[in-house]
Write a structure and sequence with these properties.
- The protein is of the alpha/beta class.
- 50% of the residues lie in helices and 11% in strands.
- The chain has 27 helices and 14 strands.
- Helix 9 packs across helix 12, helix 20 packs antiparallel against helix 21 and helix 22 packs antiparallel against helix 23.
- The radius of gyration is 26 Å and the shape is globular.
- 44% of the residues are buried.
- This is SARP family transcriptional regulator.
């Protein structure tokens, strides 16, 4: 768990100031400052708070090892003897663990980075051999490297990295002559992709060398995102019948004709109306409208048009390619303020279906800092989804509405609803494969694992990764898919750095997506940073205030507040969410714990009894054995202590 001993005020990307404990994003971006438990930039202690300087693990009395990542790889013990394995892949494996969040990676991830050209069985055997070679080299200190059936990790408290020491000396990139992992020649394209990205991150960290006071995602290093499987480990994807040409399946033609002869839905986004301002307002209006279009296409998987497109036989095709409604943005600039209005109306008779508005600072808006006005976009997407559901009254419309129906079923959370959602998504794939469809299938697996629907969930985890990989292959720029895949990798695999990069990219592409912020908040819970999660959860409640899935966002607020020790806030948010989902076992756990910490033992026992009715045989040991993230953090201990106080049994 990370410990923070000072407070600073930072801003969300929309200009909303919040006060958070902890480190601020440095050169390597949010993924590094918030999640890397080894980073000297983030790791503070009581001695640092009083000016004594950072704690050097070399002064701790438990026989640390030194790992050299700059120049040729090397590993030496406390007495200076080399314990470097001879195999290059074994060396690479150790380096990849050391450079990951908390020194851990899943077996699947390691196999697919180092043996991507082999079958699953061959890759698994090669990984076992590499681990055996490392243990033999370490000898009596073999417990430095630990592995179970799913995960491999290093005991980072016994390891000092030369990269950490370089960062502490504040040396610039031009003073470093050694290359990161110089001479490691693995000849695997997946490993080379990883190494290239790590080197870029390392030099970026050295070059910038400063702390920024703005809470915003970093720009991704440039890379060929269109390259096959560049974003996820190479695992087998489900065999899915695909219609159309590859370019069409990848989404390059939003008006393509599916195999059954029907055109997909296309909604009209009319040109914005701008009153009382010059060119600067027009530019801001275009930026805001582009964000609306992105939110609709990613969130609902429907096309957006400005009426400028042409199609053969447009008169005959008009009813098959467009929806009978349109969206229009109106901006009124008056002094230092701007009024933002969004209206959804009938395309022909202009009858208004929905209207909402928000006033914000003109300066803020012209800078692209849309603040709470971004909630208008989220609300518009929800309203449009509701309209599409009500219009799904024939086979063609129900085909296009399958994704929306499935998402609503997912958030009802029961076993039968998840099964129904999965069937709808599989049917939609038959109709037209889409990135977000595969991402939602992957997301369903996290619910099935998290709510313990299956005693043996290994196959669910494998399927989750396969669907996630397929989602990003089809569209690596889909903000919804990026957020869902990020959650899969944080919840199921604990790959926090990788997941954080996906969340940051999602938020850059679509900062008005509450789901992305919400799942990113949960990642901070898993990583032991509930205070940051609480701040994000508050922002999500602003964005998703009118969302039909608001209870899900309230659940995150409940979890984050409970882990941070704010039990009054946890109870308020949790009981609000429970009204919508009275049998959601995750809510019941945190409400039982928070009521116990608030000395309301009657309420605590009430929620514990409801939890035991929903999740038969609940016990602390069973809960720990379920693989639920965050239980090893300080907040996780608060949760367990509260459950014990409420009367939960150990076994």
């Amino acid at each position: 768990m990370l410990q923070f001993d000072y407070r600073k005020s930072i801003d969300l990307p929309f200009g909303i100031p919040i006060s958070l404990p902890g480190c601020l994003p440095g050169a390597a971006g949010m993924a590094d400052w918030s999640l890397d438990a080894r980073s000297s930039t983030c790791q503070t202690s009581a001695s640092e708070a009083t000016g004594a300087g950072p704690v050097d693990r070399m002064k701790k009395g438990h026989d640390p090892f030194r790992m050299f990542l700059l120049g040729p790889f090397a590993l030496v013990d406390a007495e200076g003897r080399s314990v470097t394995p001879k195999s290059k892949k074994a060396q690479a494996l150790l380096a990849m663990l050391a450079l990951s969040a908390r020194g851990s990676r899943s077996r699947i991830w390691l196999r697919d980075k180092l043996w991507s050209d082999r079958s699953d069985d061959q890759a698994a055997a090669s990984l076992r051999q590499a681990l055996l070679d490392i243990h033999k080299t370490l000898g009596s200190a073999r417990d430095l490297l630990i592995a179970d059936k799913n995960t491999v990790w290093l005991d980072m408290d016994r390891l000092v990295l030369d990269t950490e020491l370089v960062v502490r000396t504040n040396r610039s990139a031009d003073q470093i002559t050694d290359e990161l992992l110089e001479g490691i020649d693995i000849r695997d394209p997946e490993f080379e992709d990883w190494l290239t990205l790590e080197r870029q991150n390392w030099y970026s960290r050295l070059n910038v060398g400063e702390v920024h006071d703005v809470f915003e995602p970093r720009q991704q290093p440039s890379r060929d995102i269109a390259k096959h499987s560049a974003l996820l480990p190479l695992t087998g994807a489900p065999d899915v019948p695909r219609h159309g040409k590859p370019a069409e399946i990848a989404g390059s033609n939003p008006y393509r004709q599916p195999a059954d002869g029907d055109w997909q839905w296309v909604m009209v986004l009319q040109p914005p109306i701008v009153v009382g301002v010059g060119e600067g307002g027009q530019i801001a209006a275009t930026r805001f409208q582009n964000l609306i279009a992105k939110a609709i296409t990613d969130g609902l998987a429907i096309g957006v048009s400005d009426l400028s497109f042409t199609l053969p036989d447009i008169e005959e095709s008009e009813q098959r390619i467009s929806l009978p409604i349109c969206l229009q943005l109106r901006l009124t600039f008056d002094g230092d303020m701007v009024m933002i209005e969004l209206v959804m109306k009938h395309l022909i008779n202009n009858r208004i279906h929905w209207l909402s508005s928000q006033a914000i600072s003109r300066t803020q808006f012209e800078r692209g800092e849309f603040g709470t006005a971004a909630a208008l976009i989220s609300q518009a997407v929800d309203q449009l989804a509701y309209f599409l559901e009500t219009q799904a009254n024939d086979r063609r419309l129900s085909q296009d509405g399958l994704l929306i129906d499935a998402v609503n079923a997912i958030f009802r959370l029961s076993r039968s609803d998840l099964d129904n959602a999965e069937r709808r998504l599989e049917e939609q794939i038959q109709y037209q494969p889409r990135s977000s469809t595969f991402a939602w299938l992957s997301f369903i697996r996290t619910f099935q694992v998290g709510q313990r629907f299956n005693a043996l969930d290994a196959h669910l985890i494998e399927e989750a990764q396969a669907y996630a990989r397929k989602a990003l292959e089809l569209d690596p720029q889909n903000s919804v898919s990026l957020a869902l895949v990020g959650h899969v990798h944080s919840f199921l695999f604990g790959e926090y750095d990788y997941a954080a990069n996906l969340f940051e990219k999602s938020i850059r592409l679509n900062p008005a997506l509450p789901l992305s912020w919400d799942l990113y908040a949960m990642l901070h819970c898993y990583a032991g940073q509930p205070d940051k999660a609480v701040a994000m959860a508050r922002w999500v409640q602003e964005l998703g205030v009118y969302s039909p899935h608001k209870y899900y966002f309230d659940t995150t607020k409940c979890i984050a507040a409970a882990l941070a020790g704010d039990h009054a806030a946890a109870i308020a948010a949790g009981e609000e969410a429970l009204r919508a989902r009275p049998n959601f076992n995750s809510l019941l756990r945190y409400l039982a714990s928070s009521h116990a910490h608030s000395n309301n033992l009657g309420g605590a026992r009430h929620y514990l009894q409801r939890l035991q009715a929903v999740e038969g045989g609940f016990s602390i040991n069973a809960f720990r054995g379920s693989g639920y993230p965050l239980l090893d953090t300080g907040g996780g201990q608060i949760l367990i202590d509260g459950l014990l106080k409420a009367g939960a049994k150990l076994r």
